[in-house]
Amino acid sequence: MESTLKEMREGASVLDMDPKSTVGGGVEDVYGEDRATEDVLVTPWTISVASGYTLLRDPHHNKGLAFTEKERDAHYLRGLLPPATISQQLQEKKLMNTIRQYQLPLQKYTAMMELEERNERLFYKLLIDHVEELLPVVYTPTVGEACQKYGSIFKRPQGLYISLKEKGKVLDVLKNWPQKSIQVIVVTDGERILGLGDLGCQGMGIPVGKLSLYTALGGVRPSACLPVTIDVGTNNEQLLKDEFYIGLRQKRATGQEYSELLHEFMTAVKQNYGEKVLIQFEDFANHNAFDLLAKYGTTHLVFNDDIQGTAAVVLAGLISALKLLGGSLADHTFLFLGAGEAGTGIAELIALEMSRRSKTPLEETRKKIWLTDSKGLIVSSRKESLQHFKKPWAHEHEPVKGLLEVVKAIKPTVLIGTSGVGKTFTKEVIEAMATINEKPLILALSNPTSQSECTAEEAYTWTKGKAIFASGSPFDPVEYEGKVFVPGQSNNAYIFPGLGLGLVISGAIRVHDDMLLAAAEALAGQIKEEYLAKGLIYPPLSNIRNISVQIAANVAAKAYELGLATRLPRPENLVKHAESCMYSPAYRHYR
User: Fold this and answer.
1) Is 161 part of any domain?
2) 176 appears as a binding residue in the annotation
3) Nearest to 566 by CA among 556, 553, 577, 578
4) Does 8 or 268 have the greater pLDDT score?
5) Residue 192 among known ligand-binding residues
6) Could you tell me if residue 11 is inside a domain?
7) For residues 191 and 202, what is the distance between their CA atoms, to the nearest angstrom?
8) What's the pLDDT score for residue 294?
9) Residue 529, C-beta contacts closer than 8 angstroms, at least 6 positions apart
10) Do 89 and 100 meet the contact criterion of CB atoms below 8 Å apart?
11) What is the rounded end-to-end Cα distance, in angstroms, of the chain?
């Protein structure tokens, strides 16, 4: 996709930069948490206090009943806690029992957010130890409902809100954030939240959720993460009329007013935090997503998870699936339903991987990939009316409308849904895929679950158990004619935490396509025969921190190879170095 972005930048590459621009961006470890083991004492205080009451209300250092007798004396906690002392493990058991009693996912989400606000380490301990159970709670699909109802459930701000009211003062707003050593920022303008559309300021649930995964799955310190929502208004009439809506009550700003606020934000971030802070664009509308990535890709360390993260995780699944399908990527024909940022981003990375493996020009490998949008198959006769990011996919073919007709005409071996519209992989479409292919590969990637192009049960049933299936949101195992099929989840959480860790530990100053390929290959390398036997093309999420370490090491190695790393000298063993840099949620012992 770098080639597409280079066209938008008039030939500029992420490798074209002024060497002087690599200065700055170092991150201070205020409490010594990176260097401290669980047995090394750390000091939770930066000021003198007369009572431990403040400590109990500091989520970064509160341990609740796990404070030892010695700590209760040293930090003025006597009488502020019941006399019992319990372990973090017992606290974890108690809270998991409580969370499991809730019937509604949103209740579980609220309970987890409240835990994060009072005891940060215990929150991450639960999320790390029960990742398969709690990932759907703190992120997709539940986070979608949380964003829709964010105004009603809002209790305490969890990130920075930068609105048009702050135009001209964005740097001052950044300085209001209490943590000064930021390594990763996730920013959204709320215009395209999952498959739910424009949720305006209430999109803050997405950056908050993403950054919790950067910490839990990728080991980036919570204090180094900053969620940001850029509020330029919303075109969602329902929200504008909602008395509990927390954002600007105006139509969404566009054009110069929008661009100036975003540019001020990007400039202020670099000025305040330096060159090496990772800025992840999240859930921007297509027209802004590509423009922002093209505009800032050569001047900032930027990454768009919807375009690049989705592409890397899908590519990893395809590489794994080749062990079941046979052949190489170039032997297959790919059809996308949806030609937005996710669809075109995935398509470009697949074409790039095919090009590099087969030594074939990118223009040729693109011809193996077909995209459809709301107007039908994207073909050359439509080129003049297409948005710029769709034009590389306009191939020679007669116009075809309707997905079923397109499947019959193109005869794809792989069907990928990125439309954001549920139930679009109909029974007729899936049956056509099964007629054309012995093992049709079907990826229904749209989130949340309600927007998935089809369910796992539909894919397996309609293909009579022939399908290899993965989805964006989780589905339960399916039994068909006595055989149990375990659907894989093509979850971006496999990629972005490890990618972010790799960028941080190498001190990378730009994101290059080769790093995305390195991340995808590292993920595909984690798939084992026992997983493939169940039809899984992704490894279990229960092993995600180890997977993130491998991805981080691969990404860091590529950063050093490309000359984009600034943390020198290069560590001899990048895997061990990545492990040593990961945040641990275990309680610290206080002096």
Assistant:
1) yes
2) no
3) 556
4) 268
5) yes
6) no
7) 10
8) 94
9) none
10) no
11) 51
Choosing from 31, 109, 124, 139, the catalytic residue is 139
Q: Is 306 annotated as a binding residue?
A: yes
Q: Is 437 annotated as a binding residue?
A: no
Predicted TM-score (pTM) of the model is 0.90
Domain stop point among 235, 270, 300: 300
**Side chain identity at residue 372, one-letter code:** T
Q: Which one from 63, 108, 125, 210 is the annotated catalytic residue? A: 210
The predicted pLDDT at position 20 comes to: 42
Do residues 328 and 530 make contact, with C-beta atoms less than 8 angstroms apart? Answer: no
- pLDDT score at 49: 53
282 annotated ligand binder? yes
**Over pLDDT 70: what percentage of the chain?**
93
Six-digit token pair at 567?
């943390």
Q: Are 118 and 126 in contact (CB under 8 A)?
A: no
447 assigned ligand-binding residue:
yes
Tokens read off for 179:
């943590």
Which amino acid does the sequence have at 554? N
How far apart CA 338 and CA 452 sit, in angstroms, is 12
Whether 326 and 459 map to the same domain: the answer is yes
Question: Residue 112 belongs to a domain with what CATH number?
Answer: 1.20.1370.30
Determine contact, residues 272/226, Cβ cutoff 8 Å.
no
Q: What are the structure tokens assigned to 445, written together?
A: 């990637």
CA neighbor of 469 nearest in space, from 414, 517, 432: 414
Q: Which residue is listed with tokens 């768009």?
A: 304
Q: Which residue has the tokens 């080129």?
A: 383
Does residue 276 share a domain with residue 154?
yes
Could you list the residue range(s) of the whole structural domain that residue 80 is in? 53-138
pLDDT, mean of residues 523-547: 93
* Local structure of 161: helix, strand or coil: strand
Shared domain for 149 and 189, answered yes or no, is: yes
Query: Residue 26's pLDDT is what?
Result: 39
Residue 102 known to be catalytic: no
Longest dimension (CA), the chain: 79
**Whole-angstrom distance, CA of residue 348 vs CA of residue 513:** 10
pLDDT one-digit tens code per residue, 328-341: 999 999 999 999 98
Token pair belonging to 117: 């606000």
> Would you state the pLDDT for residue 409?
97
Same domain assignment for residues 320 and 449: yes
Is 583 an active-site residue?
A: no
User: Contact 400/386 with Cβ under 8 angstroms?
Assistant: no
